[in-house]
From TrEMBL:
Record carries keyword Protein biosynthesis: no
GO molecular function: transmembrane transporter activity
Subcellular location: Cell membrane
Protein name: Putrescine-ornithine antiporter
Lipid bilayer topology: Multi-pass membrane protein
Stretches of the chain forming a coiled coil according to its record: none
Cellular component terms (Gene Ontology): plasma membrane
Keywords: Cell membrane, Membrane, Transmembrane, Transmembrane helix
Length: 79
């Protein structure tokens, strides 16, 4: 996970020369993207905790699939 985060950060900074006012805009974009991803991760994790019982979640190696299977009668969980 850290590798993908680093690659995304490196990619954002590599294109700084194509951005207007990069000293101001690149840090804002990196911080905004990081905060946005953190919010999505926290919200989706809390939603899974609300949908799937804890005893099933502990034994699952695919919690998102388990949540979709719980919501859509198993059809979406197999996809």
């Amino acid at each position: 996970m850290t590798l993908w985060a680093f690659l995304g950060l490196e990619s954002a900074c590599a294109n700084a020369d194509a951005v207007d006012n990069p000293e101001k805009n690149v840090p804002k974009a990196v911080l905004g993207g990081t905060l946005g991803v953190a919010v999505i991760y926290i919200v989706s994790t809390n939603m899974i905790f609300g949908i799937v019982p804890a005893n099933e979640l502990v034994n699952s190696n695919a919690p998102f699939g388990l949540a979709f299977a719980s919501m859509f009668n198993g059809v979406a969980g197999k996809i």
